[in-house]
Amino acid sequence: MPEMRRHHISSAVILAKPGCLDDVRAALAGFDNVEMHGAEKGKIVVVIEGPSTGVLGDTLMRISLLDGVIAANMVFEHVEMEEEEVNGQRTDAA
Known about the structure:
Chaperone NapD; chaperone; Alpha-Beta Plaits; cytoplasm; signal sequence binding
């Protein structure tokens, strides 16, 4: 029987200090597992992905410690179950 892996996906809202939005966006661009999906009036919406809730939490903590960040809050988390590859093929199950 194939082994199931988990893939965690979370959305988060980041609040930047006035005048720091561009610097925070530039810093976020350096994170491998973070995608920005909007930024306006000091707020940035991101999606964070990783193999566990712990990885998502660690990433969110690193974001909250960036210069210019007032707050970084997780909004939603979803877990995808994925089967390991067998003979070069993968079957996903949600």
